[in-house]
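#lab-general

N.A. 3:47 PM
ok so I finally got the sequence cleaned up, no stray characters, all 195 residues accounted for. can someone with queue access submit it? mine expired

B.Y. 3:52 PM
send it over

N.A. 3:53 PM
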Amino acid sequence: MSKLKFILSGGGTGGHIYPAVAIANELKARFPEAEFLFVGAKDKMEMQKVPQAGYPIKGLWIAGLQRRLTFDNALFPIKLLSSLLKSRQIIKQFQPDVVIGTGGFASGPLLQMANSAGIPTVIQEQNSFPGITNKLLSKKANAICVAYENLERFFPKEKLHFTGNPVRQDLMEVASKKEEAIQIYLKSIVISKVY
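B.Y. 4:20 PM
back already:
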């Protein structure tokens, strides 16, 4: 069997980035030979956080729509077209087996192009009220993993899988951090008494 290839996309906030990293870490534990690539928005938080987690990332020139009339909104159609073309190029070069989106505007063009290319897509929705990108992508997604029940009002019921939210392992390993936490706590008490 050839090694599996996964592309993960999501970003703009930690609420989209960290679940994607947690998913990649779990997939890496299950499929050690797999290849991973992240796709995010240029100049956003994911461009630093994902490499810090040990994964390569490519950036798209994309941004969300503002709720008021701005110059950035006027550029949105150009950014979207650019991101769709770049996403198609990334998919063609990397040839993923599955594309996973965790939300945020960066995942929109990538999952759209993966769907167009017939590549299976999975959406992971962390919230009880989904964002616009995931709602739009849900129609063509193969599976939608959710953390809350009763999301069939937003997503096709037959695609829903109640999985909960992915959590990074470093958040689960608290025993090794106990002494450091106590020292930080004691230091903060001393500082607060001084002031």
